[in-house]
């Protein structure tokens, strides 16, 4: 066996031949492996190419499909073009302002100087705005649309510094756009009451900067790390002012404290302990007092002498290094604490906007109203209607005041009335996606200012949008069979008209919110930078330390609104439902002396203005109702609107002391007066300095104590919030907890909830009443997917192309 095997092997593969063939076989195998390897590589490459082609095809298909998805409908129309024939509530148009200016400059007795040449001692136009016609004429025209439309008018404020005895005068120019005459509205307003204007401010700052820099340059450099001039990146500046009225100073002079700051972002949080008191009645702008490091001096010279003698404590303050991590700078930081890199939710309008805008007139669901921006007083609404019934003739911001407290004179006297800074022009540059939803409609506001003969327009001053609040408007879930099985609810979509005022350091978000129930909410929210002061250890009762060198001082924000209600006409009444307790015998208790105590309410009809001046008292809760005595529902209850305030705040300062007489409207949370044409506003642009003898004295509105039964009534609503700053107010105060609001709520006005007909409601119920096993039917949910793309927020490109939409050039 072994031999035969050997023979067979020998025959088949001779020994010598086998050795010769081994290298050839190895080469063949290697060539085969290389071929197979090449095939593998080729297959892999082809696979990658095929995969890439598939990806490209998928992407192309997706892109094409995406391109085919149309933009969502824009919905109802928006026309913001300036009208040729403006409504009686529309702000002054450019055509009207042009005609008004041409007319006024021809009136020789006014001796007007054009903006380029105005000085304190000249006569010039400070501002002008729409002057509403008398209400009776306006209502007659609006309700009948018959007869002649009331003429368009402008109220113009002129500073007559050219006279021997300077004064302020307010005139009404009419008819626009081609006026023929003017009448005096107010005259002989003391010249010293005027707000600080361009000529005043520029000259004063130049004067005090020059004097302070010349005399105290070394002191400032050593004390605060910078100088007022030639300062490179370490600049100091006078950037804030505190008015001191004659009622506080005891002197019949126009005085202001000018504060000094280290000028970095944001300077308001970098105050230094240096201020000067300036006599603004003196065109030389003389310095009356100097404050430095907790001490007052009569002159800068006396301060420098004392400083040079080393007789006073010196506390050098380093100039801050400008970096993205500087505590006062609003740059994103602490990103390691961010919990997500995902974008926040956004809201969309799947079928486009459900409101329309034409000029300054808005229609939404059952609502319609006119809006405008008063240069002096801010946002104003007129002729607010629901289901074509006027609810409010005028809803208007009157004043924003902030009263500070402090150890230093700069805050000790810091009682601000923001109308003195002109509220309207402080509203501009709203940012889509932050200040308002990106789908909002943004609208401009125009003003007449001392700096220009033409109308000045600020973009993005208003926004209007509809949004789902995320809170049900109503709902009920009857899940137990013995109660009957159903669910009904309605999402709360509201329309909001918003403006945001930035008055130096504080920002105020002002909303008018329209509900589908016929309710209207007026809301204000504070944010922005607090007004800090240099840290003083002996002033703890006035503020708290919030950073190494500053404290945040106690202050009181106060807001005043005018609400001219017209419920079923302009002849209204005001009553309260006073809630109290009543004691009665408890006949269901075996004890014959047992009593039961419960709440009751009593109707209290207010007959005079003094009776209608309301000061909140927790012991006497009440409903505030406005109604017509001629219109009742089928149960005999008057069809009313209720005024509910959730922003009430008490002004603690004693009546008649200091600057309090300039704001007597804050003595009451609600005050109701008979409407008069000469009582159109409760505050004025002169309030910062006129406390000794207010130009507009709200106290006089009440003192005549007129009858208010069946009269045209106005409710004056005041709100406020006390703010003691804390470290979380850095860099800026957040909005949670800083909101104030009041509501106008229908009360027996409708037979049922007027939103019962809304398509936004949802109902779920069994197919067979109270039998869930029969299946359910659903009414109200949208079944179709969104088949369109919402508009892209292109604001970044817009502001890059036109920075003037956000910043002054």
Helix percent reads 10-25%
Beta content comes to 35-45%
End-to-end span in angstroms? Answer: 112 Å
| Whole-number mean pLDDT | 91
Tally the helices. 10
Q: What is the CATH C-level name of the largest domain?
A: Mainly Beta
CATH superfamily of the largest domain: Copper amine oxidase, catalytic domain
Ranges with pLDDT <50 over ≥5 residues? 1-22
* Class inferred from helices and paired strands: alpha+beta
> Could you tell me the radius of gyration in angstroms?
37 Å
Outline: globular
Look up the CATH topology of the largest domain: Beta-galactosidase, Chain A, domain 5
**Number of strand segments:** 35
Main sheet attributes: strand count, strand direction, barrel closure: 16 strands, antiparallel
CATH-level-2 architecture of the largest domain: Distorted Sandwich
**Total count of domains:** 4
How is this fold's topology laid out?
Blueprint: H1 2-12, H2 15-68, E1 78-79, H3 94-104, E2 123-131, H4 135-144, E3 152-160, E4 167-176, E5 181-190, H5 198-224, E6 236-244, H6 246-249, E7 255-262, E8 271-279, E9 287-292, E10 295-297, H7 300-308, E11 355-358, E12 361-364, E13 367-374, E14 378-386, E15 389-404, H8 409-412, E16 415-417, E17 441-449, E18 456-478, E19 486-503, E20 506-514, E21 520-528, E22 532-534, E23 543-545, E24 550-553, E25 555-565, E26 573-585, E27 595-606, E28 613-614, E29 622-632, E30 638-645, E31 670-674, H9 698-703, E32 713-723, E33 739-747, E34 761-768, E35 771-779, H10 795-801
Parallel strand pairs: 1-11
Antiparallel strand pairs: 2-3, 2-17, 3-4, 4-5, 6-7, 7-8, 8-9, 9-10, 11-12, 12-13, 13-14, 14-15, 15-16, 15-25, 17-18, 18-19, 19-20, 19-34, 20-21, 21-33, 22-24, 23-24, 25-32, 26-27, 26-29, 28-31, 29-30, 30-33, 31-32, 34-35
Helix pairs in contact: 5-7
């Amino acid at each position: 066996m072994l031999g035969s095997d050997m023979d067979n092997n020998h025959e088949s593969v001779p020994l010598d031949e086998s050795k010769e063939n081994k290298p050839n076989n190895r080469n063949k195998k290697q060539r085969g492996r290389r071929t197979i390897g090449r095939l593998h590589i080729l297959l892999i490459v082809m696979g990658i190419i095929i995969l890439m082609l598939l990806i490209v095809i998928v992407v192309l298909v997706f892109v094409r499909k995406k391109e085919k998805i149309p933009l969502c409908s824009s919905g109802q129309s928006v026309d913001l073009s300036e009208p040729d024939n403006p409504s009686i509530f529309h702000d002054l148009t450019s055509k009207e302002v042009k005609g008004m200016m041409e007319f006024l400059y021809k009136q020789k007795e006014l001796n007007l100087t054009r903006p380029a040449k105005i000085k304190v001692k000249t006569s010039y136009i400070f501002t002008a705005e729409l002057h509403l016609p008398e209400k009776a004429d306006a209502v007659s025209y609006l309700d009948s649309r018959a007869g002649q439309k009331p003429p368009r008018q402008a109220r113009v404020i002129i500073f007559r510094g050219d006279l021997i005895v300077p004064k302020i005068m307010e005139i009404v120019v009419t008819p626009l756009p081609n006026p023929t005459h003017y009448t005096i509205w107010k005259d002989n307003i003391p010249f010293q009451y005027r707000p600080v204007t361009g000529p005043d401010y520029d000259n004063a700052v130049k004067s005090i900067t020059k004097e302070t820099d010349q005399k105290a340059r070394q002191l400032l450099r050593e004390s605060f790390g910078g100088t007022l001039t030639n300062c490179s990146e370490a600049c100091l500046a006078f950037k804030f002012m505190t008015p001191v009225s004659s009622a506080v100073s005891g002197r019949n002079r126009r005085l202001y404290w000018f504060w000094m700051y280290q000028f970095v972002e944001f300077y308001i949080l970098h105050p230094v302990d240096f201020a000067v008191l300036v006599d603004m009645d003196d065109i030389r702008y003389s310095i009356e007092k100097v404050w430095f490091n907790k001490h007052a001096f009569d002159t800068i010279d006396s301060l420098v002498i004392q400083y040079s003698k080393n007789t006073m404590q010196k506390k050098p303050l380093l100039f801050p290094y400008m970096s993205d991590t500087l505590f006062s700078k609003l740059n994103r930081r602490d990103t390691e604490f961010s919990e997500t890199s995902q974008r926040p939710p956004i809201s969309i309008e799947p079928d486009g906007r459900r409101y329309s805008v034409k000029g300054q007139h808005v229609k939404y669901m059952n609502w319609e109203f006119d809006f405008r921006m008063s240069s002096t007083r801010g946002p104003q609404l007129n002729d607010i209607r629901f289901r074509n019934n006027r609810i409010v003739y005028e809803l208007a911001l009157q004043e924003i005041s902030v009263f500070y407290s402090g150890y230093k004179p700069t805050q000790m006297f810091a009682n601000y009335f923001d109308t003195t800074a002109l509220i309207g022009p402080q509203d501009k540059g709203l940012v889509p996606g932050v200040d308002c939803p990106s789908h909002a409609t943004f609208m401009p506001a125009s003003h007449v200012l001392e700096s220009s003969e033409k109308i000045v327009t600020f973009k993005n001053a208003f926004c209007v949008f509809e949004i789902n609040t995320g809170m049900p408007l109503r709902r009920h879930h009857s899940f137990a069979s013995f109660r009957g099985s159903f669910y009904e609810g309605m999402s709360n979509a509201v329309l909001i008209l918003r403006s945001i005022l930035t008055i130096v350091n504080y920002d105020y978000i002002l909303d008018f919110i329209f509900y589908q129930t016929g309710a209207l909410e007026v809301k204000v929210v504070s944010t922005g930078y607090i007004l800090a002061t240099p840290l003083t250890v002996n002033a703890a009762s006035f503020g708290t330390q919030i950073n190494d060198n500053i404290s945040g001082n106690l202050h009181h924000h106060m807001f005043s609104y005018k609400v001219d209600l017209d419920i079923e006409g302009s002849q209204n009444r005001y009553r309260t439902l006073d809630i109290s307790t009543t004691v009665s015998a408890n006949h269901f208790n075996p004890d014959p002396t047992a009593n039961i105590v419960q709440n009751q309410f009593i109707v209290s009809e207010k007959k005079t203005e003094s009776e209608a001046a309301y000061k909140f008292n927790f012991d006497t809760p009440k409903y505030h109702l406005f109604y017509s005595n001629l219109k009742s529902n089928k149960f005999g209850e008057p069809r009313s609107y209720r005024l509910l305030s959730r922003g009430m705040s008490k002004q603690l300062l004693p009546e008649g002391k200091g600057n309090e007489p300039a704001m007597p409207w804050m003595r009451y949370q609600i005050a109701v007066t008979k409407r008069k044409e000469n009582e159109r506003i409760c505050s004025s642009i002169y309030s910062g300095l006129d406390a000794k003898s207010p130009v507009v004295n709200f106290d006089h509105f009440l003192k005549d104590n007129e009858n208010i039964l069946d009269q045209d009534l106005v409710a004056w609503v005041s709100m406020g919030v006390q703010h003691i700053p804390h470290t979380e107010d850095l860099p800026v105060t957040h909005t949670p907890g800083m909101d104030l609001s009041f509501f106008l709520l229908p009360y027996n006005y409708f037979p049922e909830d007027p939103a019962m007909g809304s398509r936004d409601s949802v109902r779920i119920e069994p197919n067979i009443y109270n039998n869930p096993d029969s299946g359910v039917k659903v009414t109200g949910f949208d079944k179709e997917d969104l088949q369109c793309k919402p508009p892209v927020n292109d604001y970044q490109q817009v502001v890059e192309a036109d920075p003037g939409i956000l910043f002054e050039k």
